[in-house]
């Protein structure tokens, strides 16, 4: 019997290798030849796994460096994503186990009693007997239709997608931290400006009060001066409150209770990194969320093969062998040998349409994953264009705002000179000082917004660009490409 079984098993083994999964092709996305808001787009090789390094190093701030490194060790959101990635790897290991034979062993030593009134009772059958068995078994599913291989392929793609999700979460958290840090330092600069303004207004208010006591000015000027000083103090308190909330947000990002976390105020004047003109548009493919979406399309494609394989019989090779006796003495002798070998097949003939429904679900998942991939790509292009446009136009706005600061400062100086000579009332000084303060605060706010736009651009590009980072003058707008 065994001699007849082996040729059949060999034939089945040689026919293994069929797969019903469709040939995989990534979804087609609209072709883009150039960024509208930047330089011409250069061909490049997709590199979603390329090392991005510490991209925040372009800002050259040791405090930011130390905080960013805590994302991978202390942030709970990142820790949860890492656990999901480990789980995906575990599921893949479970799927891969089906590619190998399953070995088992069984041993039992029992004492048994049969019923006196059992059916088909024989005259020479004892009511009480022993049954001792030692047996080993081998089983292997012939993957004729690719069910196991497609399951493994889907699991492998899911692991890659989970790894890309992990990278996307890490990049998102890093960018959020850098964005908050720039806002924090912006508040520090605002606080320095307002502190200096409060000191200057306090001196002016004291001087006007003395002039009022001397009968030189009216009470209107003293009240106006006092109101101006109070307003500046209110703005300083508002900035302090906003800074505190931002500091608390940073504390949560680095996994520290806000009550135990403090960043010393420093009025840092950061440079805005210059975006290289002619930025290759294919750097979009470095984005981990785009890579994750593409891997999920591949997983869904393999899932179709798994669903189709269910329409065909599952064929399994099995073999077992061992020894069985009514007692331990002589158990391992030749007469007590037992064995079994041969294939088995299982095919569902009627299931009420369940398998067809599962195939429809698999195809729908593939279509959904493809649509999600295209949407992710379109969003990626939009985010790059958005932040390139912001960098361009905020640069122009910053240049204009700097001119407004210069003119407002000149007006402030002239009005103070004229007031000290008695040529104008304090209303003119009040107006000039208020305008100058607003212009200076707007300039500082623009600086922060430009820094945050550059961070969002780095995030949109998947963590930076592969070129030496040079710095633009903080007051110089990014020059658009000719012809745009």
From TrEMBL:
<keyword id="KW-0472">Membrane</keyword>
<dbReference type="InterPro" id="IPR003423">
    <property type="entry name" value="OMP_efflux"/>
</dbReference>
<keyword id="KW-0564">Palmitate</keyword>
<feature type="signal peptide">
    <location>
        <begin position="1"/>
        <end position="23"/>
    </location>
</feature>
<keyword id="KW-0732">Signal</keyword>
<dbReference type="InterPro" id="IPR010131">
    <property type="entry name" value="MdtP/NodT-like"/>
</dbReference>
<dbReference type="GO" id="GO:0015562">
    <property type="term" value="F:efflux transmembrane transporter activity"/>
</dbReference>
<keyword id="KW-1134">Transmembrane beta strand</keyword>
<keyword id="KW-0812">Transmembrane</keyword>
<protein>
    <submittedName>
        <fullName>RND transporter</fullName>
    </submittedName>
</protein>
<dbReference type="GO" id="GO:0005886">
    <property type="term" value="C:plasma membrane"/>
</dbReference>
<dbReference type="Pfam" id="PF02321">
    <property type="entry name" value="OEP"/>
</dbReference>
<keyword id="KW-0449">Lipoprotein</keyword>
<comment type="similarity">
    <text>Belongs to the outer membrane factor (OMF) (TC 1.B.17) family.</text>
</comment>
